[in-house]
Design brief:
It is globular and about 50 Å long. The longest helix is centred in the C-terminal third of the chain and has 7 residues, at about 340-345. The protein has one domain (about 20-405). It has helices at about 305, 340-345; strands spanning about 20-25, 30-35, 35-40, 50, 60-65, 75, 90, 100-105, 120-130, 135-155, 160-175, 175-180, 185-190, 205, 210-215, 225-230, 235-240, 245, 245-250, 265-270, 270-275, 315-320, 330, 360, 365-370, 375, 390-395, 395-400, 405. It is mostly beta strands. Strands 5, 6, 7, 9, 10, 11, 12, 13, 14, 21, 23 and 29 form a twelve-stranded mixed sheet that branches. Strands 17-16-15-8-22 form a five-stranded antiparallel sheet, with no helix packed on it. It contains two helices and 29 strands. The chain starts with 19 loop residues before the first strand and ends in a 5-residue tail after the last strand.
């Protein structure tokens, strides 16, 4: 996403041994990362700590937590969570209610010579919500409806984490909602539920290549925002209602316009977006679920060949309640796109030193990662993302990355 000032967090299951840690320093001048070292000691200050997920030898399962990336000057992750890289795609509309009732249609990616999970542990659809917790910063929180590639969910934990079992070409879902304490600055989960198959207590398992619909909507203000995921290919579906222990979590804004952004985020964007979490190793690799940066050969997120090694996710459309579609589309990266690459690579480009991008395909869908066969517009590839924060927010001017409106409009 691009709402939070700190993003993707990694949580380690207590049942899995940690194999590596990395230190993350967030300063005014930018982001720096110490090279990952086996069994490295965590820094003394919790705001500077990152701990990677791990898997036991021979145990094809992983436990991870992916949080919203917030403002490093004011927010920190609890436990072993970290903030990282969330390039996002934003549908834009001036229709009242467009940020409250919208349906995304997409076709799930499929493994090829490279598994989909290699480039990152999750992709998600999400949105800014109100938070009735009296201690929530700005009274706001952020939903991430997280799809886990090559994975079947075992548990979705109250702290926003998830535990999964390896299952090639399968997808399942948890729904963490991230909040920030107005007193301590800690980012924690306000809510997290598993997406079940109908009225069962079994996960809704979707298949590579399936067409899905993700519908966000309201039924009554006394209930939380609802999201129904329908696998159009199989006819199976599941629904999650966002009700926290303090009360319902509701859409923060009515209109899906640029500038209606999460207050404690790193980007000036729309309320709802699609994001592919990058900058982590696969949950099923070794090291597993580890924070990583461009230039590291374990960091497949920044290697174009890995993206081209599988059939891409295709975002076919967004439809609002009145049947209309976005008037524009925009993109933003919370780490500045190519600027993140040049901060840790000797130069931009080549293996493990390329930032993935959004493109529009002749099939009539957006893709993410690279120029797949049939690409019609790639919008300058990584140049589509603003490289420095030039928009404002509650933390002052030039504190958020600005949305880039894509042209031509597909």
């Amino acid at each position: 996403m691009g709402r939070i000032r700190w993003r993707a967090g990694i949580w380690r299951s207590p049942h899995l041994p940690a194999t590596a840690t990395a230190a993350l320093a967030l300063g005014v001048a930018g982001w720096t990362v110490a090279a990952a070292q086996p069994s490295a000691a965590a820094p003394a200050h919790p705001r500077r700590a990152v701990q990677a997920a791990a898997t036991a030898a021979g145990d094809p399962s992983g436990g991870v937590c992916i949080g919203r990336h917030p403002d490093p000057s004011a927010v920190w992750y609890t436990g072993a969570c970290s903030g990282h890289d969330e390039p996002e795609l934003d549908p834009v509309s001036s229709l009242p209610g467009s940020a409250q009732d919208l349906t995304w249609t997409a076709i799930l990616p499929a493994d090829g010579s490279v598994p989909v999970s290699a480039v990152g542990p999750t992709f998600w659809w999400g949105g800014a919500v109100t938070d009735p917790n009296p201690n929530a910063l700005f009274g706001q929180a952020f939903l991430e409806l997280q799809f886990y590639p090559d994975a079947i969910v075992k548990t979705c934990s109250a702290d926003g984490g998830f535990n999964v079992t390896y299952a090639p070409d399968k997808f399942s879902v948890c729904s963490p909602v991230w909040q920030v304490s107005s007193t301590s600055g800690a980012e924690t989960a306000a809510f997290n539920a598993e997406l079940y198959d109908g009225a069962s207590h079994s996960p809704l398992v979707m298949n590579a290549g399936d067409t899905i619909e993700v519908h966000f909507y309201l039924t009554a203000l006394s209930r939380g925002w609802q999201v129904t995921v329908t696998d159009v290919t199989t006819g199976r579906s599941g629904t999650i209602v966002l009700d926290s222990k303090y009360g319902p979590l509701l859409p923060l804004f009515s209109t899906q316009r640029i500038g209606n952004a999460l207050g404690w985020g790193l980007v000036d964007d729309t309320p709802n977006s699609f994001v592919w979490e990058i900058g982590h190793t696969s949950d099923f690799a070794s090291p597993a679920g580890q924070y990583c940066v461009p230039g590291q050969t374990i960091c497949d997120s920044y290697d174009t060949a890995h993206w081209l090694g599988f059939t891409p996710l295709r975002i076919v459309s967004v439809t609002f309640a009145d049947g209309s579609h976005p008037s524009q589309w925009a993109v933003v990266s919370d780490l500045g796109g190519s600027a993140e690459v040049t901060a840790s690579c000797p130069a931009y480009g080549g293996p493990y030193c390329t930032y993935p991008w959004y493109a529009f395909n002749r099939s009539g869908a957006f893709t993410f990662g690279a120029d797949y066969p049939g690409t019609l517009f790639d919008y300058g590839q990584a140049a589509q993302f603003a490289t420095t924060p030039r928009c404002g927010g509650p933390f002052g001017p030039d504190t958020t990355f600005c949305d880039t409106v894509l042209s031509p409009v597909p």
